[in-house]
Write a structure and sequence with these properties.
elongated, 7 helices, mainly alpha, Serine Threonine Protein Phosphatase 5, Tetratricopeptide repeat
């Protein structure tokens, strides 16, 4: 049996609201025992949760868009559109600069255009972000061998 001084006054209301957290919080906020500072903190906490939830929902869309741009850049490379591929890889990196494969792919596009210093920087960035990636390591090694870079 639940012990509550308000139970005897209105048992139906008590049973409806006893386990509903939103109603409990609302009732606490309305109560005279909650200070103004506590009310402000509760409101700030709720706002923080709303903002956090809305930003975390956008992340998958951003990652998906970056992946689509990367895939389009790969298609451009296959038909020899190196400048277009470069643009798409740069756009993907603007959305997710920590994705090593985007740096690697941008390095490939820059290398094909003869922009050796920029390509080297992208390959090295890719390897720094993902040192265990064998494909990136092989691309950087091949690039350095072809261009006589130590």
């Amino acid at each position: 049996m639940l012990c509550d001084k308000n139970f005897s006054k209105n048992p139906e209301l008590h049973l409806r609201t006893a386990f509903h957290p939103t109603i409990k919080i609302r009732n606490k906020i309305r109560s005279a025992k909650v200070s103004v500072m506590q009310k402000i903190l509760i409101v700030i906490s709720v706002l923080f949760l709303v903002v956090f939830a809305s930003t975390s929902c956008k992340a998958p869309d951003t990652a998906k868009r970056a992946d689509e741009l990367n895939k389009y850049g790969i298609k451009c490379i296959k038909v020899g559109l190196w400048r277009e591929a470069e643009l798409r890889f740069q756009q993907a990196l603007e959305l997710d600069s920590l994705m090593a494969i985007y740096h690697n792919n941008l390095g490939v596009a820059l290398e094909a255009q003869g922009r050796i210093d920029e390509a080297l920087a992208e390959y090295e960035s890719a390897l720094k972000l993902d040192p265990a990636n064998q494909e990136i390591y092989e691309n950087l090694t091949r690039f350095k061998n072809v261009n006589n870079i130590q």
